[in-house]
Amino acid sequence: MTRDIPEISLQRLPVYLNYLKSLSGEDNKYISSGAIAQALGMGEVLVRKDLAYTSSAGRPKVGYVRTELIAALEDYLGCNQRKAAVLVGVGGLGRALLSYGGFVNYGIDIVEAYDSDPAKIGMEVAGKKVCPIEELERGVQEYKPHLAILAVPASAAQSVCDMLVAAGIKGILNFAPVQLKADESVVVRHIDVAASLAILASLL
Amino acid sequence: MTRDIPEISLQRLPVYLNYLKSLSGEDNKYISSGAIAQALGMGEVLVRKDLAYTSSAGRPKVGYVRTELIAALEDYLGCNQRKAAVLVGVGGLGRALLSYGGFVNYGIDIVEAYDSDPAKIGMEVAGKKVCPIEELERGVQEYKPHLAILAVPASAAQSVCDMLVAAGIKGILNFAPVQLKADESVVVRHIDVAASLAILASLL
Questions:
Q1: Which of A30, A37, A148, A201 could form a disulfide with A62 if both were Cys (CB 3.0 to 4.6 A apart)?
Q2: Do B177 and A14 touch (CB under 8 A)?
Q3: In chain B, which residue's Cα lies nearest the Cα of A156?
Q4: Is A95 in the same domain as A173?
Q5: DSSP assignments along A37-85, one per residue
Q6: Last residue of a domain, one of B53, B76, B99
Q7: Which of B2, B5, B20, B93 to mutate to test the interface with A (most CBs of A within 10 A)?
């Protein structure tokens, strides 16, 4: 799914989607790029450019049909294509992510979870089985996930990353406060919650 | 704490910090911007420019003294200044964040949590008291936090955001999949975990 959209534009698409979904009623049948821009505090040209990456086209005077634009964004973001994911590290954050209902909106299905702690093996969290980390390869063969969520402590993150890559995972969302090294063919993105809050504090 | 650093550079400082902290031993007494750049897959000029925002200066030939650079980054990011924060929404994610040990590395102290569910009031999570949401203003007056973490469902996010702003909070880290509207003087940043994973999937 390689496309020409810059990642920075791609990152804004869920923002538009969330906003459009938050509107409802007949008053919001049509929405203009200007109205979206104003609501989100962005420039109108930028909004129009971002939305042009999806197949949706605004109509002169009235703008976009809101439901059509939602459908176009969902289509572009692959919300209707089921994507299997695995999760490694069933600590507090891992459990919260397993229980989170928001993934389904993007077609993401966490199929199995893994941990190294014997006390957690065999547990079920939100209907997902916690398996020993040694079974990761078996799980990847069985479910063919492309995505993995890494929610292990910093000290274990690189070795688990290596296991994920060896098993054939192509995209990793890393929550550990560690910069991971992985083959160039693997896309790694990082959510560092504590750093995000520290950066926010720095901006005040 | 308004400074000239672009936010995009600021966002990279914790990445350098994590990397430098992951090194250890006498072999790593000095580190050059080139070595940092290579390890993190960035350009050397960019690294040098980012690091120049901190007071640390590399020395010709040998580079930076690693411990000094760590200290300069920690100083710049305010890791040694205690910053009080409150958390609203003690669901799975809220609980995980309350229990997360990583905030202390950045001097962030979550002092109290709030929820609207009577069943959660009076609970303690990781030593933090869960108070009724009605007590938010009292809590802000008592602890003078500048930061708030918003971990409530999407449907409640805007109204809780309004309460936080009215109570005097200046920075909000929002985990709900909603674009929040707040006064311009308030800095709002968004972590949308499901959207991040969907974007990652789009990049594969």
A1: A30
A2: yes
A3: B22
A4: yes
A5: HHHHT--HHHHHHHHHTSS--PBTTTBEEHHHHHHHHHHHTTTTS-EEE
A6: B76
A7: B93
Average pLDDT over residues A78-87: 94
Mean pLDDT by 10 residues, chain B (204 residues): 78 94 82 91 92 80 89 94 96 92 93 96 93 95 95 94 96 93 92 93 90
Task: Report the pLDDT value the prediction gives residue B61, as an integer from 0 to 100.
Answer: 77
Angstrom CA distances, A103 to A47, A79, A141, B138, B176, stand at 25, 9, 22, 35, 12
pLDDT at A41: 86
| DSSP designation for B29 | S
B153-193, pLDDT tens digit by residue? 999 999 999 999 999 999 999 999 998 989 989 999 999 99
Give the helix, strand, coil percentages of chain A, each rounded to 5. Answer: 50, 20, 35
H helix intervals, B112-192: 136-143, 154-167
Q: Residue B45, Cβ neighbours under 10 Å: how many?
A: 10
pLDDT at B1: 45
CB spacing of B197 vs A170 below 8 angstroms: no
The length of chain A in residues reads 204
| Cα gap B62→B106, rounded to integer Å | 28
> CA of A182: how far to CAs of A136, A148, A185, in Å?
17, 13, 8
Residues 6-65 of A with CB under 8 A from B: 7, 10-11, 13-15, 18-19, 22, 39-40
Q: What CATH number is associated with residue A93?
A: 3.40.50.720
Q: Is any Cβ of chain B less than 8 angstroms from the Cβ of A146?
A: yes
Residues B192, B94 share a domain: yes
Say which amino acid occupies A35: A
Q: What's the pLDDT at B172?
A: 97
Q: Closest residue of A to B76, CA-based?
A: A202
Residue A195 and residue A103 in one domain = yes
Distance in angstroms (rounded) separating the CA atoms of residues A142 and B108? 42
ipTM: 0.89
User: For residue B81, what are its two tokens?
Assistant: 């200044």
Q: How high does pLDDT run on average in chain B?
A: 91
- Smallest CA–CA distance, residue A197 to chain B, in Å, is 7
